[in-house]
Design brief:
The complex is a heterodimer of chains A (about 260) and B (about 220). Chain A folds into two domains: about 60 residues, no CATH class; about 190 residues, no CATH class. In chain A, about 75% of the residues lie in helices and about 0% in strands. In chain A, helix 2 packs antiparallel against helix 3, helix 4 crosses helix 5 and helix 6 packs parallel to helix 11. With about 220 residues, chain B is an alpha/beta fold. In chain B, helix 3 runs parallel beside helix 5. Chain B is globular and about 45 Å long. Chain B is built from seven helices and ten strands. Chain B has a six-stranded mixed sheet with strand order 6-7-8-3-9-10, sandwiched between helices. The chains are: A mainly alpha (about 260), B alpha/beta (about 220). The interface between A and B is medium-sized, with 18 and 27 residues. The complex binds adenosine-5'-diphosphate and magnesium ion. The site of adenosine-5'-diphosphate has 11 residues of chain B, from helix 1.
């Protein structure tokens, strides 16, 4: 396999791209310079670290290590989805629920596929399990973050309507139905747009990589189709579970709306 | 059949303050009760607790002698209709708004019944097709009343139904409430306006610092 070699000086040269964004942030007084610098360094560090972790993992494929890595990924995804939810419950309350929603969505999408569609040998075969689970976790994370962000905000801004429905004898589920529908639609839209534009706008990295490294294109494409469908299931399940948790946080057992204070 | 609505020693504490400090009330079947008191005295909190939309920290609400805790909230709130000070209109026509109550109970509202309801609150049928959110304050108040009546409640519980209206429209709402009471409904009206409280023509309670007392 031949590929263009990226030497360290060349890698550093690519930092100029970040410099462009920093310059624009300065000019427009966006105040994003610190975030950009931090993000650039952190992103690089994370990728370098995971590069070594994956190397270790592929060389010493042991179920405990694979599971540990997936658990760490799940933890980070949960913490990220529970972060910065305005008008919502505290992060600590949301964290465990985010983990559950992301975990449930990922399990539903990953387990059946690896059991029936892409059989793994052994079941913890890291070169499939880790990257595909990562894509699922990441999509679930985005969906759950969107759900939390939106449902608590709309319950607050439309509290008078929700209460008016409760006062007419509606159950919490009925009273929040409009807000839930709008939230889930918004949260699923990016995934659905992904379905519609795949291959036209974005060329999936894994498929491209497989073709580059010699997998027959029709096989690589099939993998990608399966992954796309998995992403849809992940989004739907994680979104539904997150909405369920949000609803339980928004209402008492006596069907009273409680808006989290912050 | 109308039931007695009762609150016993309701206490609501927020931020270490007793917003309700042992507030009690008795609303016999078919009676009218006005609760009058200065702004900030706890009237809205009391009305919301009486409607079971807010859980008191102590005390009990009873309907027909039965603790509200032992009645499903959906059922309690169908029997005791609560109208907030500025009732939220749902998206869509007035008719859609009237249908909301029956709909959450899996029922539908006949056209005849919709016309009956809208006339009962002093409006005319053409308004049924109008966008509810574009109505005036007084019209919204009436639509909210009709919407509540579609559930065929036993008790009407209203928080300052006249506060956002001009004096004329306010008086007409009070007159309408008297009419509804004459048809057998119990009516509980919260207001800061002495004249409206008296005009309702029932028992008058004074609300002060989270407590209620009968004004004689
Ligand atoms: N959720 C709350 N948290 C803290 N204070 C509140 C809350 N709800 C109401 N209050 C306070 O309780 C007092 C009574 O409020 P309210 O019941 O609305 O009175 P009223 O309807 O008679 O004007 C007010 O001082 C109000 O600021
Ligand atoms: Mg008030």
């Amino acid at each position: 396999m031949s590929y263009a070699h990226i030497t360290l000086p060349r890698l550093l040269l690519s930092l100029a791209l970040i410099a462009v964004a920093i310059a624009l942030s300065r000019r427009g007084r966006l105040g994003l310079e610190r975030d950009l610098v931090w993000g650039a360094l952190r992103g690089a560090a994370q990728l370098i670290a995971i590069g070594y972790v994956l190397l270790l993992l592929f060389n010493h494929e042991h179920p405990a290590w694979v599971v540990l890595l997936l658990a760490v990924m799940l933890g980070v995804a949960g913490a990220t989805a529970a972060r910065r939810v305005e008008h919502g419950p505290p992060r600590t309350v949301l964290f465990s629920r985010a983990i559950a929603a992301i975990g449930a969505g990922t399990l539903v999408a990953v387990v059946p596929v690896f059991a029936a569609v892409v059989p793994l040998h052994p079941w913890y075969e890291a070169r499939y399990l880790v990257p595909i689970s990562g894509m699922m976790l990441s999509n679930a994370m985005n969906v759950v973050a969107l759900v939390f962000e939106r449902i608590f905000a709309s319950a607050r801004s439309e509290a008078d309507q929700v209460e008016a429905l409760l006062a007419l004898g509606a159950t919490p589920r009925q009273a929040l139905e409009r807000q839930v529908r709008a939230t889930l639609r918004a949260a699923l839209l990016p995934t659905i747009n992904g379905l519609l534009t795949v291959g036209l706008v974005a060329l999936p990295g894994m498929m491209t990589g497989q073709i580059v490294s010699g997998t027959p294109p029709e096989q690589a494409v099939r993998y990608q189709i399966v992954i796309l469908y998995q992403l849809v299931a992940v989004a739907a399940v994680a979104g539904m579970v997150a909405v369920g948790f949000a609803r339980r946080l928004l209402f008492t057992g006596r069907a009273q709306l409680v808006l989290p204070r912050n | 059949m109308t039931s007695t609505l009762e609150a016993r020693e309701l206490v609501v504490v927020r931020e270490d303050r007793r917003i309700l400090d042992g507030a009690s009330i008795l609303v016999p079947p078919g009676e009218a009760v006005a609760i009058q008191g200065p702004s900030g005295s706890g009237k809205s909190t009391f009305a919301r607790a009486l409607a079971t939309l807010l859980e008191p920290d102590a005390g009990a609400v009873l309907l027909g002698g039965l603790d509200a805790q032992r009645i499903a909230p959906t059922q309690f709130r169908t029997r005791v209709a609560f109208l907030a000070q500025q009732p939220a209109m749902f998206e869509g026509s007035v008719l859609r708004n009237l249908e909301a109550g029956p709909q959450v109970h899996g029922k539908s509202l006949s056209d005849v019944r919709a016309s009956e309801l809208i006339r009962a609150v002093g409006l005319d049928e053409p308004i049924l097709q109008r966008e509810a959110r574009t109505l005036s304050g007084g019209e919204k108040q009436r639509v909210a009343l009709a919407r509540a009546l579609a559930n065929e409640p036993e008790v009407l519980l209203l928080d300052e139904p006249t506060a956002a209206l001009d004096p004329d429209a306010g008086e007409r709402i009070v007159a309408l409430l008297r009419e509804l009471r004459a048809r057998g409904l119990s009516v509980v009206m919260v207001t800061h306006e002495e004249s409206h409280a008296r005009a309702l023509g029932g028992t008058l309670y004074r609300c002060e610092r989270g407590r209620l007392a009968i004004d004689s």
